[in-house]
Amino acid sequence: MKLVYFAWLRERVGKAGEQVSPPPTVTTVGGLLEWLRGQGGNYAEALKDLSAVRVAVNQEYAGHEAKIGPGDEVALFPPVTGG
After folding, report:
1. pLDDT by residue for the chain (83 residues), tens digit each?
2. C-alpha closest to that of 72 among 22, 36, 25, 35
3. How many whole angstroms separate alpha carbon 80 and alpha carbon 58?
4. For residue 4, which phi and psi values (nearest 5 degrees)?
5. Where do the DSSP E strands lie in 1-83?
6. 78, 6 contact by CB (below 8 A)
7. Where are the domains of the chain?
8. 63-75: buried (b, 16+ CB within 10 Å) or exposed (e) per residue?
9. pTM of this prediction?
């Protein structure tokens, strides 16, 4: 699974993206976020407030209940503001 981080999430995690292999029990966006937060360090800091994190799966907005799989691209970014 490919993860991509944007804006302050990229700064806090310390990288723009990475390949991860979460356990087979991680099948939803919410499960992935909890698993990442459980990795500690920069992940725990970046994901401490999940209400401030938006997610896209394969370039489409997704909620925490959205299903994910090994071949997906998951992007994490802060809420988008308009002008």
Report:
1. 999 999 999 999 999 999 999 999 999 999 999 999 999 999 999 999 999 999 999 999 999 999 999 999 999 999 876 55
2. 22
3. 18
4. -130, 135
5. 2-5, 17-19, 54-57, 60-62, 73-77
6. yes
7. 22-67
8. eeebebeeebebb
9. 0.93
